[in-house]
Amino acid sequence: AADSQSTINVNGAAVASGSASSGLPLTPGDNVFNIVVTPAGSTSTLTYMVVVTRPLPAAWAVAYATGGEVP
Q: CB-based contacts of 20: which residues, under 8 Å, 6+ apart?
């Protein structure tokens, strides 16, 4: 956030303004990250939803396509 007094939460965990969040897992498929920012001196919030799609590993895609077991 531009203001260091703003509060930021990523998936419910507080993140200091200007800092990276802790590591977030990326599983195959859609991964949803909810970001809530409360500006300094305000009670209103700004909410963002970021969706990151991680493709299936090649071996999994083949297994799904052929009806085989996922490794």
A: none
